[in-house]
Batch of 2 targets.
Target 1
Amino acid sequence: MQRNPLGKTEISISSLALGTMTFGAETNKVDSFRQLDIYVDQGGTHIDTADGYAGGKSEEIIGEWISQRGKSHAITIATKGRFSPPEGSAGASRRSLIHSVDASLRRMNVDAFDLYYVHGWDPQTDILETLQTLGDLVDAGKIKQISWSNVSGWQLQKIVALASSHGLPSPVALQAQYNLLERGIELEVLPCCLENNIAVTVWSPLAGGWLTGKYAANERPADHTRLGEDPDRGDGYDYRNTERTYTVLRLLQVIANDHNRPITHPALAWAVSRPGVASVPVGARTVKQLEANLAAADFFLSQEEMSMLTQASALEALPYPYNFLEDPCGMDIWKVLGTRQVRNLAN
Ligand SMILES: NC(=O)c1ccc[n+]([C@@H]2O[C@H](COP(=O)([O-])OP(=O)(O)OC[C@H]3O[C@@H](n4cnc5c(N)ncnc54)[C@H](OP(=O)(O)O)[C@@H]3O)[C@@H](O)[C@H]2O)c1
């Protein structure tokens, strides 16, 4: 499996990470262990979790797996704190973060996290307090690299500027929702990441299941699917049940048929090949889904296919100031492509 640099660090992480939000929830412990084994056997090196997933069970399951199997140095583990920790208080204050990190380390049976995400902006806490706390956690050896998730462009730029002016650790990664149906980060967050060499890791690369083609217009989502169990989960069924979604799905199906691949492969390959993206965590309820998604690791789109998908899924009706200039984000993101993406596109 291809590996990419994690921003400005020496660390490299695999282009497909293992998303573990289903562990302890839709996926029981036995199948979670199987997913972890399969992922590592196939050369995967990056495991993504959070303290709030399944009330801490996701971290516990991974911790138990690490205790039984051991953790190779090649594997990097990322967890997150800020929202609904199993115990203690939510937020990014000094007290909350220190408590959350210690609790996550205990649950996962590790001494340190390779990557620790603050799961989202905390308006109740002075951002400098959060950054100083993260710096102290790095100094204490409990976190190796810091990162953020679910922040806006100005928030991320402020984090970078404050970290730089106070000599504190700067974020090396940013995790955001990014897929063919959700491209909002291209306006501010992705350019900010490119400008600061911050690696983008992606959540919901299949738009929570929409890009598998399992949801259809005017049809109640089937039981035992994410939206069948909760139609309001994530962006919700109604939000994505639009003509734009079905246009993208039709094009994905054409490309998938041309290559004799499942529809998920061009969807994942698009996300993997976007500028700045270092790793795409694949989330799966079942072992079968995971195996199908990991098989996308050797699939790359042609430049023409990338362009067709990018056009079909273009952001609609941009507000000012994004509609004022020809290039909405003020940065030709293709110009800053590294050799990695160029190589992918040539395949
Ligand atoms: N930072 C954040 O705020 C944040 C937020 C969300 C997720 N994440 C991370 O990102 C990871 C991925 O997010 P996600 O789970 O939303 O990703 P996703 O790939 O968009 O959706 C995964 C879901 O789609 C369905 N699916 C996946 N592969 C399939 C296949 N081959 N055939 C049929 N259905 C398939 C399964 O749901 P059903 O079978 O249940 O329908 C699966 O649970 C998470 O595990 C987590 O690590 C981070």
Target 2
Amino acid sequence: MGNRLDLLSREYLESPHAHLTELRRRGPVVQVDPGGMWLVTRYEEAQQVLKSASLFSSQGLRASAQPAWLQRVNPFADSLLFLDPPQHGRLRALVSRAFAPAALARLEARIRGVAREHVAGMMNQKNVDFVDAFAMPIPATVMGWLLGLDASLHQRFNRWANDLVTMSGVRPEDTGAMARYHQTLEEMERYFQGVLDDRRDAPRDDMASDLLRAQVEGEALTNHELLSFLYLLLVAGLETTVNLLNQCALVFSQHPELLLRLREDPALIPRFIEETLRYEPSVMATLRLCTQDVTLAGVELPRGALVLVSLASANRDEKYFPDGDRFILEREGPQRLSFGHGPHFCMGAMLSRLEARVALEEFVSRVERLELRTDHLDWTTALLVRGPVTLPVEVFAPESGQPVTARIA
Ligand code: HEM
């Protein structure tokens, strides 16, 4: 490993954890590329940065959504994810109702129906791309319901969300990718503007209509703020949960005995989800910007420095997660940082846990074994999120072919 590791290099993207272990050994705050940003590798320092918005601003994250080469406004880059208190808190309150436990409980039966249908589809085909057959359609359908979008446009939503989170990985010479991102933003704007115009004329029971009615300090949201919300929720709610499900499938392929244990005892599924989130978090890192000169763990960071908080590394910090490179279903330990920490803590944490639990309950009730059908996986090229581009697998039903649904209903 050279002196400064490039987090967009192929060697890092293919096996980040070995590199992160080495970086943690070097110290809690180490300089990396691209751009000589500072990587926070350990749990305590990661928490410290994430809860101190006045020293470490979320404007740092904005650079990933509004790169210099992008010659147009990206409404996503103006969403609450990139704002600091107090402006952040006022906007956050507007959407929190939609994620309240009662609202989520009403979704469970519908999610189960969709998951059941996709497990059945997978069992019919046997050899599938897991991303396309299972991991993507469930969260895409749920986000479609919540936002009031046309669920039949799954593939398109997924491409949009994927494009928005991979923008940070574009190399300066890759003009083809830049043109594609421009086109994506135009398509998204046309589509979401249409949704807002429709709901202005005929409100429905969805978030787009709620947001149109919402007021901050007596004023309605501007059209740009409305678009920003819709972009954020689509991106935050899709790619992340898709990759959580992908990672669950990868764990099943590496540890077939765990799939059998979950079939025996589906009550272990929430534990399995928590350990998967720790072991392979779909949001690998988040960015902050130093608002003033600051010393972090003895390292002097100048005002304006970019700080990349590695959630993946903090989740394997030896001090809190001994033997962190092992997947241990019974693992205890402090709260994982997979959903962040502090004022920007993920608003969809309960929703994604619900989606994953119901999806896996349906999955383990019908599938006894899942095998990977490739020797090599391609991973998304992005600084902040991680997931396989495709996941060719073969799924096997138990000999008897009998689902074990009785224990779950
Ligand atoms: C496995 C699934 C998910 C993971 C790992 C995840 C992870 C995260 C993380 C790490 C943050 C904090 C980013 C930061 O501090 O800069 C975040 C924020 C956020 N997430 Fe999630 N997320 C997931 C699913 C979802 C879902 C399903 C939704 C909604 C439908 C959602 C909505 C949000 C929103 C709105 C924020 C911004 C909160 C704020 O800025 O105050 N997330 N998420």
